[in-house]
């Protein structure tokens, strides 16, 4: 009696192709570099930093009434108030 060889079932050709594609295109999360410790004295002298600040409308209008340069006037007033 002749036995017919049995075919091993791995899955359909489509399933095999999809698995191969997924493994080849799987994204791995990149390793993030460790954050450098913050340096305390790296700021440049007289360097400006952009900040967001909420001011009362009247305060803003007071500094803007003389036109351009109002941000410098706010900075000067804050320096004076801080005793700098």
Features:
84 residues; mainly alpha; 3 helices; elongated
Please provide a written account of the structure:
The protein is mainly alpha-helical and 84 residues long. Helix content is 40%, strand content 0%. The protein contains 3 helices and no strands. The longest helix is centred in the first third of the chain and has 13 residues, at 13-25. The N and C termini lie far apart (104 Å). The mean pLDDT is 80.
Brief summary:
It is built from 3 helices and no strands. 40% of the residues lie in helices and 0% in strands.
What is the terminal separation in angstroms? 104 Å
How much of the sequence lies in strands comes to under 5%
Q: Which of globular, elongated, flat, extended, rod-shaped describes the shape?
A: elongated
Q: Considering DSSP H and I runs of 4 or more, what fraction of the residues is helical?
A: 40-55%
How many individual helices? Answer: 3
Query: What structural class do the secondary elements suggest?
Result: mainly alpha
Please, what is the average pLDDT? 80
- Give the beta-strand count: 0
Q: Low-confidence spans: pLDDT under 50, at least 5 residues? A: none
Rg computed from alpha carbons, rounded to a whole number of angstroms: 34 Å
What are the secondary-structure elements, in order, as H or E? HHH
Q: Sketch the major β-sheet.
A: none
């Amino acid at each position: 009696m002749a036995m017919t060889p049995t075919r091993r079932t791995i899955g359909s050709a489509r399933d095999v192709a999809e698995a191969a594609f997924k493994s080849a295109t799987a994204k791995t999360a990149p390793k993030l570099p460790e954050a450098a410790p913050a340096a305390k004295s790296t700021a440049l002298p007289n360097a400006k930093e952009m900040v967001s600040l909420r001011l009362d409308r009247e305060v803003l209008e007071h500094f803007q009434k003389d036109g351009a340069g109002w941000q410098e006037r706010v900075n000067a007033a804050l320096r004076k108030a801080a005793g700098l």
